Amino acid sequence: MTLCGWVESKRDHGGAVFIDLRDRYGLTQVVVGPPEAEASLIDEAGRIPTESVILIKGKVADRLEGKTNDKLDTGDIEVRTEHLEILNTCATPPFTPSQSDLPGEDLRLKYRFLDLRRKEMQQGLMMRSKIIKTMRDFFAEHDFIDVETPILGRSTPEGARDYLVPSRVHAGKFYALPQSPQLYKQILMVAGFDRYVQLAKCFRDEDLRADRQPEFTQLDLEMSFVDADDVMGLIDGLVARTAKEVLGKEVKTPLPRMTYDEAMCRYGHDAPDLRFDMEIVNVTSVAAKTEFRVFRGTADAGNFVRGLNVKDAATKYSRRQIDDLTNYVKEFGAKGLAWFRVEEDGTLWSPISKNLDEAHLAEIKELMKGEPGDLLMFLADTWEVTCKGLYALRKRLGAELKLYSPDQLDCSWITEFPMFEKDEETGNWSAMHHPFTAPLARDLNKLDEDPAACRAQAYDLVINGSEAGGGTIRIHDSTTQSKVFELLGIDEATAEDRFGFLLNALRYGAPPHGGIALGVDRWVMLLAGLDNIREVIAFPKTQKAADLMTEAPGDVDTDQLTELHLRTVGIKKD
């Protein structure tokens, strides 16, 4: 047989050299020794640097008794080499793919071609390939048409900054890279393509984090003559198929659903992690009756006292650790963290328990369903602060106490989001999803009467506490669309300038339609059990949107700028 690959490691056993030869299929032990190999070949094999590329020819043989390796698929055999050819010698690498202690991420990204040789990286990208194939097969079976939409388009306000591309032909004009194919897919529905799907590349110039990239891949789809249940039901099937084919897991459908308001009440967030219990409990009604200044004052001001019951954790957190948790919730705007331990006799104790009478402590315990050994924790603040603080605290406690298994998979839907949210600084309305989202039919009149109470036909898919996709039923008539633009402060002239092509299309027999976009990168990250999206993208950007391997973004020649009718001003060189 003939094998080609990289030298992962080699061992000189005195007269014979053993090489672990690696390719993307795994490792194979290659033996360069007598009687197959001559002394000169054995000597050459001993000098090959690791990570060099070689070609060997030889015969497959059983390993010697007691020398098999159960950890390798090829652990029962070896290749006894008759011919060896060095195809490329490797310079001394800054790190090796087989080393157990990984270097810093910056070094891994600079030498991404070495990093991608690691087994874990290759497994992640192969899982990505399998997930994408599963998605394509699923939608092909459901009669979807795969349509590519433009990368060079018009700049339209969609919530994040656009990446702009100057036009050489049209001086002073710019294309924008798509934040999503949203407008194009709506026009495809008007055009009669009732089931569209696409693996779309999207671009957003926004602040980055571990699960966000400036360029990302969406599984984007749209359907005509459907409601929210139709779209969610279809994606239920995709989730079940992907879990089965990629992970070998059974997911029960239909996936559970919860309204946005319910999610905020129970978990403080619109993407709750449902792999473990520990719901938020509102004890404001009791707090209002106490003489404890913090609780009573909060309730009297119209704010909230809400808490978590951390089961069986009374002895797991010391005073010092609770102080650390107190400092943690302060990062989210909380002023402090009140807590009680449920003692063996069922009473509540903490440094503040003397400020509450026994009857009120008993009521709190009953509302919190406290039992001996439990640790009860509370925030007293505005609704927003208690949501943010308790959500973060719950997430941290779930991880610290190992309340769920890393391979656990929990998928659910959050529905009926608010149509609008108000900018605290300007007082203006903005769309919670995007400006093309349809309100619930029963809330249509609230567009005029009470925009804050208007709920949208919007739905988010949540996997293990992360948003994995979001969609809406769209506005399909120009009258409602114009009314929403007006609420968002987009006047008629601006609407026609930015969205005229969509508004015009809606006037020509637009069907009811809706869809969803699923974050492919995030799906792969979550299904692989990772917490960094860069681990499942072949060539990702850093948190400063830089490619350390190619050193993009980079300078361009002055002549190129001149061709594009551009010049740089006021830029200081590093």
UniProtKB/TrEMBL annotation:
InterPro entries: Aa-tRNA-synt_II, aa-tRNA-synth_II, aa-tRNA-synth_II/BPL/LPL, Asp-tRNA-ligase_1, Asp-tRNA-ligase_1_N, Asp/Asn-tRNA-synth_IIb, AspRS_core, GAD-like_sf. ATP binds at residues 204-206, 213, 467, 519-522. Residues 124-540 form the Aminoacyl-transfer RNA synthetases class-II family profile domain. It is found in: Cytoplasm. CDD domains: AspRS_core, EcAspRS_like_N. Belongs to the class-II aminoacyl-tRNA synthetase family. Type 1 subfamily. Aspartyl-tRNA synthetase with relaxed tRNA specificity since it is able to aspartylate not only its cognate tRNA(Asp) but also tRNA(Asn). Reaction proceeds in two steps: L-aspartate is first activated by ATP to form Asp-AMP and then transferred to the acceptor end of tRNA(Asp/Asn). This is Aspartate--tRNA(Asp/Asn) ligase. It comes from Novipirellula herctigrandis. The lineage of its organism: Bacteria, Pseudomonadati, Planctomycetota, Planctomycetia, Pirellulales.
